[in-house]
Amino acid sequence: MNTPTSPSGVARSDGSSVQIGALVPLTRPGWVEAGQHLLAGLELAVREVNDAGGIDGKPLELVVRDTAADPQRAAAAVDELARLGVAALAGEYHSVVARAAAARADALGVPFLCSSAVLDALTEQPTEWIARLAPAQSHGWQIYADFLLSAGHSRIAIAAESSVYWASGAQILRDYLAPRGGTVIELDMPALAPTAVCDELVDNRATALLLLVGHPEPAVSIVKSVRRDQRLAEIMIGAPAGQPEFAEWARLLGDDSAAIPFLRYLPQRLSPLGARVETALRERLAEAPSFVAFEGYDTVTVLADVLRSHGADRARTAEFWPRVAVEGTRGPIRFSRAPGISVWQWAWTPIQVVDRDPAEPNRFRILHAS
To answer: How far does the chain reach from its first CA to its final CA, in angstroms?
Structure first.
């Protein structure tokens, strides 16, 4: 699915507009709901930029490509968008996909502002071409580990699938928890059915289970099995990657969707700008916007500021990252070189640990904040 979007519904390549290539997961096996929220934020910001006069009088346009959570497809999309002459690339939710896109953008010399992906090693080597809004995984997941310890959990089981992203998350948790008295028990997920996960939790005397697995499956099946096992009535289920953020989680799990803490990249209270954008996003999505929608909006806000400063020259965009100073929906956005991070990084977006309220699963409770 290749979807050009613009104020007129048609992307132009005749120089009459300034184009941004948007990488978004819009079909399975991509996380479609996350992609829809990301795209809604991108599109809302583009509309507002154009209502305010565009970029030096030219309309700003998105040229959207569906990555479907496929790294090769994303890399091919970067190639195509570079040939089309986009001024910059934006978006992507899945970390492994964003890494492939970033590598290709770096090789081609196309600036890429990554909206949502958190994998620390977004590129193998330091690059001037890539910047990121989302916090690095090591930063966010250490905050989550602090939450676990403060909640009294020291024997923590991890149900992790095989991928660079999940393996990175598991390593961050091990490295952070072990020196602080925590024990991480890794479950062999490819070999365990959801019901067998329950037996492992009992045998290992785990007090918390973290879901480092895909959504909806096997995450939904694991939650249902654990919730129905009377031996595990006191165990906490957690999902640091944010699976419970989206409405589909509540639709699939009902009451079982609640009391599963996850990471969310929002402040405790939105600024007037954030509140206004939240209202507009809610109208566009016909549901409460996730933090991913705000990431999309902030991405275009930053890129529009950069493009107004010097036009659509790619090299000058890459040079401008350290001079960005933009008011985003979640606070002032500036990029710097964070230790151990190879791209220009907003350090840091506000981070919360939240869950769905058991008394009202459509309402979120803030349990811990950075």
So the answer is: 38
* 7: pLDDT strictly greater than 50: no
pLDDT of 14? 55
- Look up tokens 């393996």; give the residue: 167
pLDDT at 190: 83
Q: Which residues contact 136 (CB under 8 A, 6 or more apart)?
A: 118, 119, 120, 338, 340, 341, 345
- How many whole angstroms separate alpha carbon 115 and alpha carbon 112? 9
For residue 178, give both structure tokens: 């072990």
Bridge pairing between strands 155-160 and 130-132: unpaired
CA-CA distance, 283 to 288, in Å (whole number)?
9
Sheet-wide strand order for 262-264: 262-264, 352-357, 360-369
In the predicted model, is pLDDT for residue 151 greater than 90? Answer: yes
- Give yes or no for a contact between 346 and 132, defined as CB atoms under 8 angstroms apart: yes
Q: State the angle between helix axes of 137-150 and 164-177 in degrees (0 to 180), rounded to the nearest 10.
A: 50
* Pairing relationship of beta strands 112-114 and 335-336 according to DSSP bridges: unpaired
Q: Is the pLDDT of residue 5 over 50?
A: no
Distance from C-alpha of 145 to C-alpha of 153, rounded to nearest angstrom: 9
Residue 250 class from Cβ within 10 Å (0-12 exposed, 13-18 middle, 19+ buried)?
A: middle
Mean pLDDT (the chain, rounded): 94
- 3-state DSSP of 255-294: HHHCCCCEEECCCCCCCHHHHHHHHHHHHHHCCCCCHHHH
Contacts 24+ apart (CB under 8 A), 230-234: 231/198, 231/202, 232/198, 232/201, 232/202, 234/207
pTM above 0.90, yes or no: yes
- Each residue's pLDDT tens digit, 265-283: 999 999 999 999 999 999 9
Q: Calculate the alpha carbon distances from 236 to 106, 214, 269 in Å.
A: 41, 19, 27
Confidence of residue 230 (pLDDT cuts 50, 70, 90): very high
Torsion over CA: 273, 39, 108, 166 (sign): positive
Of 209, 287, 292, which Cα lies nearest the Cα of 248?
Answer: 287
Residue 310: what pLDDT?
Answer: 87
Rounded to an integer, the average pLDDT of 206-223 is 95
